[in-house]
Amino acid sequence: MKYIKSLLALAVATSAFGAQAATELVTNGSFEQLSVASPLGGYLKVASGDTTITGWTVGSKSVDVINNAYGAIDGNSIDMLGTPGPGSLSQLLSTVANQTYQLSFDLSYNGGAYKDINFAFGTSTNTAAATSSSSPFFHYSGTYTAAGATTLLAFYSTGGSNNSGVVLDNVSVTVVPEPESYAMLLAGLGLMGAIARRRTARES
């Protein structure tokens, strides 16, 4: 019975570890949730302050929700130059101070010369550039450390008053487990294996 309880405790701890690491902080990172019908095969202008894109705040002038057209990546994507732009998107995330997070997203572009996007995770800023307007798309992945209990994630168009620019999709932010957490997980898995082998040996 003692061994069974130990196995169950380790299994619960391992499950909790995996759930924490995989928890998605971004709401509607694929932009499929809209307060209106998706613009199937077309585009929908979303002006600054409009709440059409669930979970996101639109700033500057406008962005366009594009759907399976104009360089869209997967279903709904966002053309950051709007009609016209430039535009921005932001979302306030619940974070833990000094915790490291993995930020990732995909980029395409809708014609024109504006293939860059500026983005920020709190006070950390960076720039990425789309490399193709069709699959395979550019995939960005980087790690950032949160400064406090909330962190602003934001994306900014680098273009001017134009209608065709960089396209954003599949935004994700997840926890990066600390090295000691990996060590604890491996030790736990090893202990579970040892207990299982010991039980098998005693029963044979």
Walkthrough of the structure:
The chain has 204 residues and is an alpha+beta fold. It has one domain (25-177): Jelly Rolls, CATH 2.60.120.260. It has 2 helices and 11 strands, in the order αβββββββββββα. The strands form 2 sheets. Strands 1-3-4-11-6-9 form a 6-stranded antiparallel beta sheet. Helix 1 runs antiparallel to helix 2. The longest helix has 25 residues, at 179-203. The chain is globular.
- Taken from the alpha-carbon principal axes, the silhouette is globular
CATH homologous superfamily designation: Galactose-binding domain-like
As laid out across the biggest beta sheet, the strand order is 1-3-4-11-6-9
Mean pLDDT: 84
Please count the helical segments. 2
Main sheet summary: 6 strands, antiparallel
Kindly state the number of beta strands: 11
Order of helices and strands: HEEEEEEEEEEEH
